[in-house]
Amino acid sequence: MSGIYRGLVSYGDRDFSRFLRRAFLHASGRSPESLDRPVVGIATSTSDFNPCHRQQPELVRSVARGIVAAGGLPMEFPTISLGESFLEPTAMVYRNLMAMDVEELVRAQPMDAVVLVGGCDKTVPAQLMGAFSAGRPAIQLVTGPMSTGRYQGERLGACTDCRWFWARYRAGEVSETEIGQVERNLATTAGTCAVMGTASTMACIVEALGMALPDSAAAPAVHADRLRIGEATGAAAVSIALAERTPDQIVTAASVRNALRVLLAIGGSTNALIHLTAMAGRLGLPVDPDELNELSETTPVLVELKPTGANYMEDLHASGGLPAVLHELRDLLDLSALTVTGETLGERLGAGPSWVDREVVRPLSEPSREKGGLVWLRGSLAPSGALIKRSAADPALFETTGRAVVFTSLEDLAARVDDPELDVRPDDVLVLQNAGPLGAGMPEAGYLPIPAKLARAGVRDMVRISDARMSGTAYGTIVLHVTPEAALGGPLALVRNGDRIRLSVSEARLDLLVPPEELDRRRADLPAPGTPPVTGYRKLFRDHVLGADRGCDFDFCLPGS
Ligand code: FES
Ligand code: MG
C-alpha cells in the first residue's frame, strides 16, 4: 500500500489509527481522494536568518505543483535552517542538529518519499545525512546560487570578492566609502554564494552522487529554470516513492568515488570533504583520504570559477552546468552508478550538452590545472591528516620551510594579528591552535588574515596552518583540518614560536621539525584541557563529535555504533 497508509501500521487498532489520521487531514481541507495518493514530504528550511533560502516559498510551490501533477500528495514541513553567516560560534556546530531534526521528522511522519529543499552550506549535507539515516526514498533540491551584482562596471559575487576587497581595504588600497559601496553590491539576490564555495560545491556533489536531478546544481535561484527544476523534482519524488528507491541504492562506493572526482575537478571547497565523509558515513561508506590523493593526481581541474578561476555559478549554468563537467570527466567516472531517477549516470549524460563555454568548463585535454584541487597531507604535525586546496593556493609556497608564528586561540589571533610589534616576516608560517571541532566548534577561521603590517607592505599570501576550516569562497596557501586537533593534544598544540615547519605539497607532507624529546617535554607541560560547562545540545556536541577526518559527525549516528 502506498500513501498515508504507510504511517498507520505502528501500533494498536490499525483501522482506527488510519481513520483518526484521515480525520485530522480533513482539517487541512484536502479532498478525500487526495488522501489516497503517495505522500511526498517537502522538508523546507526557510528563515529570516537565512537569506540564501529567501526564495524557498516560491520554489516549494513549484515542487508541490510537480507532485500533484504526478499524482502525489505534497506535505510541506519545516525543519531548522542554518544561515551560514549568522550562527555562533559557527554553523558547523549545528549541522548535526539539523541532520537529527531531518532524520527524525522524515522517519516519524507518514511519507513515502521526501524532497529536501536546502542550499546554504550546512543545510544540504545536514538534510542528506538525516535522510540517509532515515532510509526513506529522498531527492535533493538545492535553492540555487545568487546572481552577481555590479560595482563600477565589475561583476561582484559573494564571497570571494568580499575577501578580495576586504584584503585590499586592510592594505589601505580601498577607502572606507568604497568598501561601504562594495558591501551593498556583493549579495544582491536570493540564493547561495555565487562562486564555487561550499554551497555550490555541495550542489555539484549531490548531482554527481545522483541524489538530485541532472543539471540542477547551477541554475540561479532567481532563474525560471530553478522553478522548472522544482516542478521536475516534485514529479520525480512521486516516481521514487512508487519505486521505493532508497538512498542506499544511489549512494554507493562507486558514486562516492564519482563525487570525489567531481569535487577535485571543480576546484571545490575543502568543507565538502568533511560533508561528503559524514554523508557517506551514514551509509557505512568510508571516504579514504589516501584515495583522495590518488584521485587528485589523476583528476584535472576543469572548472574556471572563483575562487580558483574568474567566473561565477551563473556562468556555469549558462555553459552546460554540471553535465558539461561530468561529460568531460566521463572516462574517469563509473557510469554504471544508479541515479535517483532510476537511470545510470551514463544514461543521464547521453551525448552531453549541445554547447559549452570553454572559458568556464575546460576540455579534459586542456584543463585549467593538470591535477585536482585538494591534497591530503600527513606528517608529524598532522598524524591523522590535514587538507590543502592547492588549486586556490600559491604554487610558489607549495614547498616551504618556515618559522612558526603561533596564535593559541581565536581570541589571541584577533588580539595580536594586527599588532605593529608582532614578530612576523613574509616567509613565516602562521599557526592557529585550538580552533578544531572540540576547541571552538571548527569555525571558518583557517583563512588567517595576513598581519596588517605585512598586508600594507604588499604581502598577499603566506602559509597558514590550523585545525579550523576555511570558507569555500576563500583562497590562499592554507592548511586546514589538522587532525588530531590541538584541543585533543594533537602535535599542533605543541608548536611554539620560532619552531621550523615544513610543508611539501609534492610529497603530501606537513612536518614539525622539532626533536621528539622536546615535543614529549612540551606535551608533559600542556595544561589540562579545560571543559567549559555546557548543557543541552552543546554538551551532546562536545561529548560525541568526531574529528575532521571522520566528517565531524556524532559517533552515535554511524551505523552499527
Ligand atoms: Fe549561504 Fe554562502 S552564506 S551559501
Ligand atoms: Mg561558505
From TrEMBL:
<dbReference type="GO" id="GO:0051537">
    <property type="term" value="F:2 iron, 2 sulfur cluster binding"/>
</dbReference>
<feature type="domain" description="Dihydroxy-acid/6-phosphogluconate dehydratase N-terminal">
    <location>
        <begin position="37"/>
        <end position="347"/>
    </location>
</feature>
<feature type="domain" description="Dihydroxy-acid/6-phosphogluconate dehydratase C-terminal">
    <location>
        <begin position="359"/>
        <end position="552"/>
    </location>
</feature>
<keyword id="KW-0479">Metal-binding</keyword>
<dbReference type="Pfam" id="PF24877">
    <property type="entry name" value="ILV_EDD_C"/>
</dbReference>
<keyword id="KW-0411">Iron-sulfur</keyword>
<keyword id="KW-0001">2Fe-2S</keyword>
<comment type="similarity">
    <text>Belongs to the IlvD/Edd family.</text>
</comment>
<dbReference type="InterPro" id="IPR052352">
    <property type="entry name" value="Sugar_Degrad_Dehydratases"/>
</dbReference>
<dbReference type="InterPro" id="IPR042096">
    <property type="entry name" value="Dihydro-acid_dehy_C"/>
</dbReference>
<keyword id="KW-0408">Iron</keyword>
<dbReference type="GO" id="GO:0004160">
    <property type="term" value="F:dihydroxy-acid dehydratase activity"/>
</dbReference>
<keyword id="KW-0100">Branched-chain amino acid biosynthesis</keyword>
<keyword id="KW-0028">Amino-acid biosynthesis</keyword>
<dbReference type="InterPro" id="IPR020558">
    <property type="entry name" value="DiOHA_6PGluconate_deHydtase_CS"/>
</dbReference>
<dbReference type="InterPro" id="IPR000581">
    <property type="entry name" value="ILV_EDD_N"/>
</dbReference>
<dbReference type="Pfam" id="PF00920">
    <property type="entry name" value="ILVD_EDD_N"/>
</dbReference>
<dbReference type="InterPro" id="IPR037237">
    <property type="entry name" value="IlvD/EDD_N"/>
</dbReference>
<dbReference type="GO" id="GO:0009082">
    <property type="term" value="P:branched-chain amino acid biosynthetic process"/>
</dbReference>
<dbReference type="GO" id="GO:0046872">
    <property type="term" value="F:metal ion binding"/>
</dbReference>
<protein>
    <submittedName>
        <fullName>Dihydroxy-acid dehydratase</fullName>
        <ecNumber>4.2.1.9</ecNumber>
    </submittedName>
</protein>
<dbReference type="InterPro" id="IPR056740">
    <property type="entry name" value="ILV_EDD_C"/>
</dbReference>
<keyword id="KW-0456">Lyase</keyword>
